[in-house]
Amino acid sequence: MANKRLHPMSIQIERGSNKELTKADDEPLSPVARMLQAPKLDVCIIAVMGSKTTFDVDVLKRGLENTLIKHPRFSSLSVMKGHDVFDKKVWKRTKVNIDNHVIIPQIDLNMDSSSSDKFVDEYITHLTTRLMDFSKPLWEMHILNIKTSDANAVIVFRVHHSIGDGVSLMNLLLACTRKSSDPQALPTLPQFKQPSISNSKTAIWRLLSTMWTVILMLLNTFVDILLISATTIFLKDTNTPIKGAAGVELTPKLIVHRTVSLADIKLVKTAVNSTVNDVLLGVTEAGLSRYLNGRYAAESKQDEKEHKLGYLPKSIRLRATLMVNIRPSPGIEELAEMMRNEGSAIKLGTKVGHILLPFEVTLHENPLSYIRSAKARIDRKKLSFESICAFYTGQYLLKLFGVKQAVSTLHGIVSSTTLSFSNVVGPKEEISLFGHPLAYIAPSLYGLPQALVIHWQSYDDKMVLSLSVDPNVIPDPYKLASDMESSLKLIKNAVMEMKS
């Protein structure tokens, strides 16, 4: 686990087999995309997909040729234009050799499920030590036709984060799939209702309510920008057992996943009058509190159940970095139509800002307190322009001081926090990837200066938890996943008791 990733400081177009370029106009990389390709912030997304059947490699290749590589980002090289390494990068269209992107490793098919699970984990960890090959479009699909404990075969889809934000890339992937129950139909994503304003409120009341909301947003934004500024200069999270040290972005990552019931999450959501995201954040905080209490108990060489009040320090500053899309991501229908017509009007983009969300690390007697507390903090963050201000501040730094200084600032902010957290909405039903029914979808990423990245992904009637960890910092990620699963059960039981 001591290997570290090294970043190439210059990429020559002539490398590799993708030499034949189209005459399409070069498109400059967006500011965020340039930052995500810098040596200190070289971030890749990994989506692990389990299949209920083994994969037909030829069918997958034909499917990718007819869909994914028709998107400009998946058929373009990221190359330098001029002498500046990062300030003058463009996307240049190229011919895609599908065999350079679909990788089939040799596998011992006689392994039992426990051995195959370990093989998949080690294979993905090895991928996190390897840089993307910039001599070809920045994506790969690894086909592991091996039976694991929860699938009959596994795909590991690796794509550089500079190609697009997580939601856009997930929508693009879903646009390549179809409902298992209807091979001609695109997947269905949940629709979120906008809160309606009651007609019973008088005009003066609505005006006063709007004015108060504006005042709150301005005040909250002011406070949030001050906190980001303080984080840039001196404000760092507590050095807990899950806080990564300097250079953690370069270490190998172990990526594990766990599946829980989406129905249980919705049950809690309804009972506490919250959102799915509120529940997921509350469950995450409850699980982290449980896990950290165990780690502190182990450090004090005590049984974590012996001390009634637990072993958590009284004051822990633990924050999560949340990436937020500044502009709406294209829908799967738009992306599917674009791939059918090979248009280039729809861009994936990387126009994202960030917010710093304080996590509550404590042991509540009432498990529902985690959800209520999480809801209060998320509702407060919704009344702030923090992510928009963070995005445009990054743009300003980039134009004024260049990529190196902008990346150094963002790296300093993220490394001062403990983890990254996200929740991505998936299809409401089972889907198939070019005729292969998927058992689960578990996205994650690596390359951030943090030892822990947490993703939640809904799929059919399930919610998939993915953890990307530095095993030198978190040597027992399955214990952490189990603590989160146990926390959800405790919260659900509290709801059932409340109803009885």
From TrEMBL:
Residues 1-25 are annotated as: Disordered. Residues 57-279 form the O-acyltransferase WSD1-like N-terminal domain. Keywords: Acyltransferase, Endoplasmic reticulum, Membrane, Transferase, Transmembrane, Transmembrane helix. It catalyses: an acyl-CoA + a 1,2-diacyl-sn-glycerol = a triacyl-sn-glycerol + CoA; a long chain fatty alcohol + a fatty acyl-CoA = a long-chain alcohol wax ester + CoA. Pathway: Glycerolipid metabolism; triacylglycerol biosynthesis; Lipid metabolism. Coiled coil: none annotated. The chain crosses the membrane at residues 211-235. InterPro entries: CAT-like_dom_sf, O-acyltransferase_WSD1-like, O-acyltransferase_WSD1_C, O-acyltransferase_WSD1_N. GO terms for cellular component: endoplasmic reticulum membrane; plasma membrane. Residues 349-492 form the O-acyltransferase WSD1 C-terminal domain. It comes from the Eukaryota. Its main location: membrane. GO terms for molecular function: diacylglycerol O-acyltransferase activity; long-chain-alcohol O-fatty-acyltransferase activity. It is found in: Cell membrane; Endoplasmic reticulum membrane. Residues 16-25 have a biased composition (Basic and acidic residues). It is a single-pass membrane protein. GO terms for biological process: triglyceride biosynthetic process. Pfam families: WS_DGAT_C, WS_DGAT_cat. PANTHER family: O-ACYLTRANSFERASE (WSD1-LIKE) FAMILY PROTEIN, WAX ESTER SYNTHASE_DIACYLGLYCEROL ACYLTRANSFERASE 4-RELATED. In the N-terminal section; belongs to the long-chain O-acyltransferase family. This is O-acyltransferase WSD1. It comes from Heracleum sosnowskyi.
